[in-house]
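Problem 12. The chain below contains 469 residues. Write out its predicted structure in token notation.
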Amino acid sequence: MLVGTGSDVGKSVLCTALCRIFLQDGYHPAPFKAQNMALNSYATPDGLEIGRAQAVQAEAAKVPCHTDMNPLLLKPNSEHTTQVVLNGKPIGNRSAYEYFRKEGREELRQEVHAAFDRLAAKYHPIVMEGAGSVSELNLKDTDLVNMPMARYANADVILVADIDRGGVFASCYGSVMLQTPEDRKRIKGIIINKFRGDIRLFDEGRRMLEDLCGIPVLGVVPMFHHIVIEEEDSVQLTEKHRDLVAGKINIAVVLLRHMSNFTDFNVLERDERINLFYTNQTTDLERADIIILPGTKSTLDDLYELRRSGMAQAIIQAHKQGKMVVGICGGYQMLGTTVSDPDGIEGTITQLPGLGLLPISTVMRGEKITRQVEFEFEGTICKGYEIHQGNSDQLICQAEHCIGTYIHGFFDNPVVVEFVLNAAGIQHKAAHPSLSIEDFKEHQYDELADFVRKHIDINKLYTILNSND
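Solution.
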């Protein structure tokens, strides 16, 4: 199990690397995270929902993703409430207080334990991921995902620390020393992540950290940007606001408060012809060539905010001027005539007018649709997946200078990208044919494995895993 000194220290990417490394070394690994909190999710082959990070790790391990890899998924609706997805299906909305109270906690614990047992019976080793900080003392009694899960699985634990944010000695020492004596013995090593500069400058620091914590530092992993692995969280999206670039196709993704599945646009970011950025400024929409309304966990709340901020009117005006507008999932719903929520599935707003760019209306339903799909587009069979609460009757809808769809992974199909660019009046062929999305990902997983092998003592890790201590 990889646990962290805090959130966003790089546990998910390192778990992805280990899944590929163990596969390369002849094992049959699978990922597991008992509880995940993320708006980026994925539909399994059997039509259920898990966190996107575990789906990525399953890809790296070359095994089909399954809800047993992430039995509990929390999808925040707001700062105070979250949708709880158990074994791939929503079981209702909970406030943070309701979710983390002790009552009913053991039932959830039994569910995640059962999921782990089923997974461990089929795969070896299980690459487990903790959540957030491993030393949140106030949540210790109700914790399902960190050290209590490690105890149940009898897992060797590796602590991951982000040196880029500073305080690495205090965070590592505190994370170890705040554990019970039993749990402290379970932590067998430390990985220092996101190092900038010459790693040799940390040689003395490495020895000091080992003396301080009494456990080996397995490696120091540099910060990297040359390998592309799908991100789980949207914390970096606000940094992806860049100026328009002359000579490129400038695509503006509207930055929604509850945006989900922003991985839909990774393929566009990698396209040499395109400059893609995220924005909540109306002036950016005026200058962009194409505007995308992305998915959202709270369609009505984000639609209300678009109208309040003037972004909705800016999108409508840009469309009138002939600019291409694309909507994905919740963004697709917003482009219709109305969005209704008579049963209060999303919250207190019962109905709002949409932007009126597509001839659809949406009604929120209690049953969530989650499935992988094949669809025909411009004579080509394409693939994607659906995760949505509302029903708009049409999977894909087109109008002049506008297209919307419920399909995540829509742009992963090259024919879709070329259609959208052509519909926007842009004739700009790629200088080099791009790899398929599948081949691109495979190359990235192998690159990641090679990079991590170079900076982590994998032999020492195997020694830890094979010991009987």
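Discussion. Residues 237-423 form a domain with the Rossmann fold fold (CATH 3.40.50.880). Students who got a different answer should revisit the alignment rule from Section 12.3.
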